[in-house]
Design a protein that fits this description.
five-stranded parallel β-sheet, four-stranded parallel β-sheet, 432 residues, globular, Aconitase, domain 3, 3 domains, alpha/beta, 41% helix
Length: 432
């Protein structure tokens, strides 16, 4: 039996020794070995037990995952409080695909999807509407409180939970967090600890107007990488939480820091809960500084690589919502599309545009008069993960445009500012 370095409770020792069965013993050993590798002092009990996991797609390449899931099910393992998952990879009804694209996705890529979702249900998937990367939104309801210790995975969800909600979790793998959620424990190191939540970078925002969330997050992520930034000056442009506009902004900002770098926690002076409560005491000694002004944002924006073969070609598709849109963002984009078409004199969008959000937000949105207005523009509404669509080698090779820095980073999609996205897809300007 593995001899742990960390201190375990008697119950944890018994599980490790196999008194609850071989499967539980193996899960505990994985969790303990992982914690020992990072210097964890103990396993912290979860105080909020509803989980969120990243691996939502049934890729045929993930062969070890499916027998592992079967073993968990056979051993009676379950996340007792349930969990949500990242978005589904397929939605042929609302995201048009050619026959060859469907073949590649359904047969060669996500052939295990239906069987895998049955396994997830057996382990504790909350409900079919729980497939989203924005599980923390009101409509979905997976929302821990400040100080809660959680076992979550997926970079944008983790950074939002740590930063905007003030919950505590590390950036772990989906499988490891599943083990932690079943055992209701997580290794106590990093962001679980007070010391691990202190900032090593001070970011000074000196822009003349509200910075584009995606570009600001990108700039910070590429500069600080996996460290913790404390941001000054951004509160000039943001309403206090729980403003829906601020939640939307920080969702996109955080996703960019996490994908363009590896940020798992940030503090916004005057805005995020720990920054409001603790202020500059969150700064470690000898912090590094990074000043961001208008010129620096433009420099970062201009640095993004061009992945299209023909920079001025007409986009094949436009994806808006990675991470998934909030209800407020969906409403605002609908109004903007209608207004943009009125300005251009067009009846329909000139680019095949897909707005993505959670099934729960879609349900709420369909109850408003904006739903028919959105459809009237020619736009499509989907619960898909745009990343998974673009991972199809045929789909991803086409000129895709987006307002998501995360999608830009992980695919060949080209990033545009919100104002440019709107102008291009409504026919007010062409791609330059």
């Amino acid at each position: 039996m593995y001899e742990p370095k960390m201190k375990l409770t008697d119950e944890e020792k018994d599980i490790l020794a196999g008194k609850k069965g071989e499967t539980y013993a193996k899960m505990m050993e994985v969790l303990v070995r992982y914690g020992d590798a990072f210097g964890a002092t103990h396993l912290a009990p979860l105080t909020y037990k509803k989980a969120h996991f990243v691996t939502s797609f049934g890729l045929s390449l993930l062969k070890p995952v499916y027998p592992l899931m079967d073993e968990l099910i056979q051993a009676g393992c379950k996340v007792q409080e349930g969990f949500t998952m990242d978005p589904r990879p397929l939605d042929y009804k609302n995201v048009s695909c050619s026959p060859i694209e469907k073949l590649v996705s359904s047969v060669f890529m996500y052939s295990k999807q239906k069987d895998y979702e049955k396994q997830l249900e057996a382990i504790g998937l909350s409900d079919p509407s729980g497939f989203t990367c924005t599980c923390y939104l009101e409509q979905v309801g997976n929302t821990p409180k400040e100080g809660d210790i959680i076992s979550w995975s997926e970079s944008s969800a983790v950074v939002f939970a740590n930063s905007v909600l003030g919950a505590r979790c590390n950036r772990n793998s989906g499988i490891l967090d599943m083990f932690g959620s079943i055992l209701e424990r997580t290794p106590a190191f990093g962001f679980i600890t007070d010391e691990g939540r202190k900032a090593t970078w001070k970011i000074i925002v000196k822009t003349t107007k509200k910075p584009e969330a995606q570009i600001l997050g990108s700039a910070i992520g590429m500069k600080v990488m996996a460290e913790v930034p404390y941001v000054e000056g951004l509160d000039r442009f943001l309403d206090p939480l729980p403003s829906e506009d601020t939640i939307s902004y920080l969702k996109d900002f955080g996703a960019a820091t996490a994908s363009n770098g590896a940020v798992g926690l940030y503090h916004i002076e005057g805005i995020t809960p720990e920054a409001k409560r603790l202020g500059k005491t969150l700064l470690k000694e000898n912090v590094q500084e990074y000043v961001i002004d208008d010129a620096e944002l433009e420099r970062v924006y201009a640095s993004y690589p061009m992945m299209w073969k023909k920079p001025s070609c007409k986009p094949h598709k436009c994806f808006i919502g990675c991470p998934h849109l909030t209800f407020k963002q969906l409403c605002d984009w609908t109004d903007a599309l209608v207004e943009g078409l009125a300005k251009s004199g067009k009846k329909k969008l000139v680019v095949d545009t897909v707005l993505t959000t959670s099934p729960a937000v879609i349900k709420a949105f369909k109850e408003t008069d904006r739903y028919e207005k959105l459809l009237s523009t020619g736009a499509h509404l989907s619960y898909i993960c745009p990343l998974m669509y673009a991972d199809n080698p045929i789909s991803g090779a086409k000129p895709l445009m987006t307002n998501s820095n995360k999608l830009r980073t992980y695919t060949k999609s080209r990033y545009f500012k919100d104002e440019d996205v709107l102008a291009i897809i409504t026919g007010q300007k062409e791609v330059a």
